[in-house]
Specification:
The chain folds into three domains: about 5-70 and about 310-495, Glucose-6-phosphate isomerase like protein, domain 1 (Rossmann fold, 3-Layer(aba) Sandwich), CATH 3.40.50; about 110-290, Glucose-6-phosphate isomerase like protein, domain 1 (Rossmann fold, 3-Layer(aba) Sandwich); about 505-545. The protein is about 45% helix and about 10% strand. The chain contains 20 helices and 13 strands. The chain has helices spanning about 5-20, 25-30, 35-40, 55-70, 70-80, 110-130, 155-165, 185-195, 215-230, 235-245, 250-260, 285-310, 320-330, 350-360, 385-390, 395-400, 420-445, 475-495, 510-520, 530-545, and strands at about 40, 45-50, 105, 110, 145-150, 175-180, 200-205, 245-250, 265, 335-340, 380-385, 405-415, 465-475. The strands form three sheets. Strands 1-2-13-12-10-11 form a six-stranded mixed sheet, sandwiched between helices. Helix 1 (about 5-20) packs antiparallel against helix 4 (about 55-70) and helix 7 (about 155-165) packs across helix 12 (about 285-310). The N and C termini lie far apart (about 50 Å). The mean pLDDT is about 95. The structure holds 6-O-phosphono-beta-D-fructofuranose (F6P). 6-O-phosphono-beta-D-fructofuranose (F6P) binds next to loops.
Length: about 550
């Protein structure tokens, strides 16, 4: 099955054979206006695609493919709440989570925009209560430490956003100490609990399903820690849970079963995919970190990107262009590695967030009509703060043997005001590195005179396709735009590849098998029938214990 066996696809294969090998440096030589012609902007954000291996014809043909795949209809289905997550029989309505209050969207007769805002208001009350030191622990001390326990989408988005927006704390929110616990092996929680005061600590148990074992085992450990701390006072478990636990889930019944009372619940809905959920009440840690006004500003930024995505012709549409250039690289130039390189330490967790967003969404080999794909889908994605990665894996980007497409992400303005002169200088240095690296990666050592005389081990071949995403400034608003941009990019690529980006069946088998192996490790089952490697490892572990 090849989704590119169409008129536009065939034209693009042909175009790739004739033009795909052109070096980016020669494209710049041929057309000195590349930047003007291949950079696109909306308020607060610029997308520079001029260092990609594209021409106007490439973009025209890519847009023709998007039209062939009826992308406009898919976009409309996404926003209107059609059940496009077919394998789970539900819509994917993360866009509704950032839709303004005055709009409406009916889902089975209910206006879900009202529901969204009721829940945001409920979250706001809770945030204000904690910020005002009115949420008290069992002994009457005000809570000043929050521990978010979650994993995957119930961790990565809030974790990343809290770091990204660390400059936007308010007077009240900066008094809160915020921690994230996700690892199943106990590493995060064990090192944390020693440092915390149980009387002032509140745990937020974030889990869409409220069945994820990683989260539940950490939650149990937290509860036992609190019970032990409160045992001298003889405080009973129900009170401990009521004062020290909040649950955030799309499955209230499970929160009740775990013991969290209704009053401590925040809700979201099954039509919110885990990796698309930071806009919902899963974003509670973000709101606690930056305050509700800033949280709403982040939602407004995402909504602005939604509107742009929904209303703008493909030729000027940032998510569509970003996605289609990715399709060109992956399916026509056979580039299957993608580096995410933020030149901003505040975006240090963006690569791991995008790893889940992209690879859990589009890392699939089956089409919507249940056929094996005959083409590449999601590339391998990884990344690191750009300037740090320069001292780590850039060697491979510059002189390795595999082609890698690179996203450079930074902002033009940082560290304003007369007291920030040194830091502003550091930012300029950082920007010069960002620009230098994308320049060399794309154009190679043609950027310096006489490079051809250097020995071969000193040469830089370049031609690694680079995108630069330049924010005017990193604010809650532009950050919301940035994340929504990537969400929609992923959606567009899924449409072209004919895959469902909203399920994740590939993560299920591991959970089942792990549950089955546990008794062999705890000694509850003698000799399981297993492959020799797994059995050998179990026996070695048991002998060593
Ligand atoms: O195992 C994968 C996954 O289902 C992700 O899709 C999800 O974000 C994560 O686990 C956590 O799930 P939950 O929020 O239900 O605990």
């Amino acid at each position: 099955m090849n989704v590119f066996a169409t008129e536009a696809g065939t034209d693009l294969y042909e175009h790739a054979t004739t033009h795909g090998k052109a070096h980016i440096a020669s494209l710049f030589k041929q057309n000195p206006k590349r930047f003007e012609e291949f950079s696109f902007s909306i308020d607060g954000m610029l997308l520079d695609l001029s260092k990609q291996r594209i021409t106007h014809k490439t973009l025209d043909l890519l847009c023709a493919i998007a039209r062939e795949k009826k992308l406009d209809q898919w976009i409309s289905d996404l926003f209107s709440g059609k059940k496009i997550n077919t394998s789970e029989d539900r819509p994917a309505l993360h866009t509704a989570l950032r839709t303004p209050k005055y709009q409406s969207l009916l889902l089975e007769g209910t206006n879900i925009i009202d529901q969204v805002h009721e829940n945001l208001d409920r979250m706001e009350k809770l945030v204000n209560q904690i910020h005002a030191k009115q949420w008290l622990g069992c002994t009457g001390d005000a809570i000043d430490t929050i521990v978010n326990i979650g994993v995957g989408g119930s961790d990565l988005g809030p974790f990343m956003a809290c770091k990204a927006l660390c400059d936007f704390t308010t007077e009240n929110s900066s008094r809160i100490d915020l921690h994230f616990v996700s690892s199943m092996d106990g590493s995060h929680i064990s090192s944390l609990l020693d440092k915390l005061d149980p009387t002032r600590t509140l745990f937020v148990i974030s889990s869409k399903s409220f069945t994820t074992i990683d989260t539940l085992c950490n939650a149990e450990t937290a509860l036992e820690w609190l019970k032990r701390s409160y045992s001298p006072e003889g405080i009973d478990q129900d009170l401990i849970v009521a004062r020290h636990f909040i649950g955030v889930s799309a499955t209230p019944k499970k929160m009740i079963e775990w013991g969290i009372p209704d009053s401590n619940h925040l809700y979201f809905w099954d039509w919110t995919g885990g990796r698309y959920s930071m806009w919902s009440t899963i974003g509670l840690p973000i709101a606690l970190r930056i305050g509700m006004d800033n949280f709403r500003s982040m939602l407004a930024g995402a909504h602005e990107m939604d509107t742009h995505f929904h209303d703008t012709p493909f030729e000027q549409n940032l998510p569509v262009l970003l996605a289609m250039v990715g399709i060109w690289n992956i399916n026509f130039l056979c580039i299957t590695a993608h580096a995410i390189l933020p030149y901003d330490g505040r975006l240090s967790h963006l690569p791991s967030y995008l790893e889940q967003l992209e690879m859990e969404s589009n890392g699939k080999n089956t089409t919507r009509s249940n056929e094996r794909v005959g083409y590449n889908t999601c590339p391998v994605l990884w990344g690191e703060i750009g300037t740090n990665a320069q001292h780590a894996f850039y060697q491979l980007l510059h002189q390795g043997t595999i082609p890698v497409m690179c996203d450079f992400i930074t902002s033009a303005v940082r560290y304003e005001g007369p007291n920030n002169i040194e830091l502003k200088r550091q930012h300029q240095l950082n920007l010069s590195n960002c620009l230098a690296q994308s320049q060399i990666l794309a154009l190679g050592d043609t950027v310096i005179e006489g490079a051809e005389n250097a020995p071969i081990y000193k040469r830089y071949q370049g031609n690694q396709p680079c995108t630069t995403l330049l924010l005017d400034k990193l604010t809650p608003h532009t950050f919301g735009m940035l994340i929504a941009l990537y969400e929609h990019k992923v959606f567009v690529q899924s449409v072209i590849w004919d895959i469902n980006p909203f399920d994740q069946w590939g993560v299920e088998l591991g959970k089942t098998i792990a549950t089955g192996l546990l008794p062999a490790l705890t000694g509850e089952c003698e000799k399981p029938s297993l492959d020799s490697s797994t059995l050998g490892l179990i026996e070695h572990i048991n002998r060593t214990n």
